[in-house]
Amino acid sequence: MGSLSEIRVRNSKPRDRAYKLFDERGLYLMVMPSGGRLWRLKYRMYGREKLISLGAYPDVALSRARERRDEARKLIVEGIDPSAERQERKTALRDTFEGVAEEWLTLQSKSLAPETISILGARLHSALYPYLGSRPISAPLLFVRPGELRQAEWSEFDLEGAEWRIPAARMKMGELHVVPLARQSISLLEDMQPFARGGHYVFPSLRSRDRPMLNNTINGALRRLGYSTEEQTGHGFRTMASTLLNEQGYPPDVIELQLAHAERNKVRAAYNKAQRLPERRKMMQAWADYLDGLRVGATVIPIGRRLP
């Protein structure tokens, strides 16, 4: 079985049934009855035969198909399954701003004119992707209520003081709530500021900068990321944060204060508000660092001790 030539690949013709033209080291061209010519790589991983697609001819020439084969085989030598590695990369892209935005564009193409989609796509690529494209869209840094998040206004943020002060009128308990901002949160907000263009809302509606994003936007994004209603909701990030922070040994009072849960004892409530903000700052930064560790796949060691 000899190696393929570019001429043989170019001259391959469809038959009644699909057939294969073999190259070397598992690479072959599948010629389909429809005329399509598809590059495939056959390999073995953990004792099992597997198959991966390397593109279609002529978009992927023979020389490029061999390069992709060699790249895949380097992974195999390192004990990495090329198919699994590719899926991980797709998942990583899907969970970024660019991944979600591209999915949104695809959905909008069903109702908007092609010219409009083209303009939106061009604006995303030129104005947003260079700054926000690789940002994870899934990293729940603040664990506030979804309604509090979607209605956040730029005027409420003090980035120098690292605080978000949510007005009493928007809080469930009717009291001003201070959210300490970790370095990661400040970095995200600074990246977003150039696109505010004088708008009030941090997360404006797609239709109007004068309104915040809709109630179901966060949950809708979670559904598109693949989470069912039983697996995760926008409000569920609060429960997740509470559970994990308690497991890591943070004082329940500090966690409850940050969740803006009501304290039945009024004297105790006044004391907590006056004394616990420094502890909450430390907790929020540690929480952001913990999420960063999960995002990059590092080994995360829970702190497992109470704050001083």
Structure description:
With 308 residues, the chain is α+β, with helices and mostly antiparallel strands. The protein has three domains: 6-80, Double Stranded RNA Binding Domain (2-Layer Sandwich), CATH 3.30.160.390; 95-135; 138-296, hpI Integrase, Chain A, CATH 1.10.443. The protein is built from twelve helices and seven strands. It has helices at 6-10, 62-77, 82-94, 97-108, 114-132, 146-150, 183-192, 217-224, 236-247, 252-258, 266-275, 277-296; strands at 19-22, 27-31, 37-45, 48-57, 157-158, 163-166, 177-180. Strands 1-2-3-4 form a four-stranded antiparallel sheet. Strands 5-6-7 form a three-stranded antiparallel sheet. Helix 10 packs across helix 12. It is elongated, with a radius of gyration of 26 Å.
Ordered list of secondary-structure elements with their pairings:
Layout: H1 6-10, E1 19-22, E2 27-31, E3 37-45, E4 48-57, H2 62-77, H3 82-94, H4 97-108, H5 114-132, H6 146-150, E5 157-158, E6 163-166, E7 177-180, H7 183-192, H8 217-224, H9 236-247, H10 252-258, H11 266-275, H12 277-296
Antiparallel strand pairs: 1-2, 2-3, 3-4, 5-6, 6-7
Helix pairs in contact: 4-5, 10-12
